Amino acid sequence: MKRITILLSCILVSLGMAAQSQMRLWHGGESTRINLSDAQNMVFGSGGTTVSIAGTTYQTSAIDSLTMIHQVTVTFNGNSVTTSIPAAVAKDITAEADGAYLTITNNNVSNEVEFVLSGESSNGGFTYNGSYKATICLNGLTLTSQRGGAIDIQCGKRIALVLNDGTTNTLADYASGTQKACLYSKGHVEVEGTGTLNVTGNLTHAIKTKEYLQLKKSTGAINIVKAAGDAIHVGQYYLQNGGSISITSTTQADGIQAEYLTLEDDITPDPNEENNGQVIIKGGTINIEMTHEDCKAIKADDLVTITGGTFDIKASGNGSRGIQTDGSMVIGESGGTDASPTITISASGGLCTNEADVDDPHRCMGIKVDGDLTVYAGTTTVTNTGSKSRGIKVAGTYTKTGGVVNATIKN
Amino acid sequence: MKKIFFIVTLLAASLAAHAEDYKYLTLAYNSMEKSIELGTIQKITFTDGQLVVTTSDGSETFAQNQMEKMYFSQTATNIQSTVADVPQTGTSVYDLQGRKIQQSRPSKGIYIVNGRKVVIK
Q: Quick check: B64 and A36 CB within 8 A?
């Protein structure tokens, strides 16, 4: 009976109600989505130099391309999940559900499939297997796993994570699982969409990407409610062009950490990886509060470049740091305006003397740079009120050609 | 029993919802038709008077000045360019509405000749 139920569940998840394919018309660098039913009878005219699509006549020379979007819808509902797959890609995609735990395997390598996740389950999860870039849209999803991660993306290609406009999405994982994060991706992730994402990492990191994580200008709000490990842990690099990041530390871990993507079976940073180990912030807002010992709000293995954005970082734990890099740091753009970025850091913690570093107590610092610090523009303010705390410490060369720096600097 | 009935009902509802779930893009050109699986199409472009459909299997090119229309369908249609100058004596010729054609030399168009689609140019 159990076998029959699982089989029927598989059939059910494969035959949903809302699957559809759409066409994307690219013209002038922008795109318009068109339902296929609205694009019936695309009639050519004027010797094939015009084509009528969904009631509008286009010069074919003005059309950059027409591409297809195949949209798979996934709806969680308590202890069950319903999946709908368009006929055009049904032979390439399998969906297997065990209660509200869904595993999608996508073998389509021709074009990008869009997965739209919505609904609510306090005992469910989403696992994605694939070998081609894909889009995952969060469209009002509330998902708590009782087995592992809430979203586990086992695909090494680019994943576009879209926070659908006007939606709030909430993810939480299992505190006793073996997952790498509440939201994990084996590849690189590009976030867009003006919705909100709340993430709770009960076991370790809240968000982890093995390769780069990019927040596009259109990104809404990402709130890390809790993280037993780092709030956001990325391999390769972290790039923020926009969006709002809010992190409240609840355990001894870092806020945003970018680590080197290494060579296979080696600890050597892979020199072929672009921006390896870097944090690059060009815009958006970052609010981080580190209350625990020896934590870094922003930590990079390599270069930190901040050319835009508004930062409000509070490092109140003993030995904690606002920004720390093993490499160098650049603030502002050469020739840029003095208006951006605005970095405000409060270093109010005292000395950290944990067992591992009993002979080398860590000071609380606003910014700690092991390489060089170059300031071109912006306003950087560090208030250090903690016992033996420091404003900015630079091991290499400190150069300031513009902008304002309000901080004590130890060079 | 109730459970099975419920599942079958759900399945039926799901299948019904696929009524407009298209599987092919069909291109009508020069009185011929060619269907391409939607799931394989990567992009369609218009370059130098050619419509190019790039798929996972390669690309297909169509002269734009011969293009009539494109449409989406659930089944594939492939009308080849079978050109018959004059139907042979004794054959039955019908138009696409099923009407028998009496003329020995039908005008341009698509006809059913002995059960096969034939394009008269």
A: no
Contact B44 A67 (CB under 8 A): yes
Domain B19-79 has CATH 2.30.30: yes
Give tens-digit pLDDT for A235-282: 999 999 999 999 987 787 899 999 999 988 788 899 889 999 999 999
Of A40, A47, A63, nearest to B72 by CB-CB distance is A40
Contacts of A11 in chain B (CB under 8 A): 11
Interchain contact, B43 vs A41, CB within 8 Å:
no
A271 touches chain B (CB under 8 A): no
Tens of pLDDT, residue by residue over B41-55, are: 999 999 999 999 999
Query: Which own/partner contact pairs does A120-124 have at CB distance under 8 Å and 24+ positions apart?
Result: A120/A76, A120/A77, A120/A78, A121/A76, A121/A77, A121/A78, A121/A79, A121/A81, A122/A78, A122/A146, A123/A78, A123/A79, A123/A99, A124/A76, A124/A79, A124/A81, A124/A99, A124/A100
Q: Where are the domains of chain B?
A: 19-79, 82-121
Instruction: Please indicate if any CB of chain B lies within 8 Å of the CB of A54.
Output: no
Q: Where are the domains of chain A?
A: 69-410
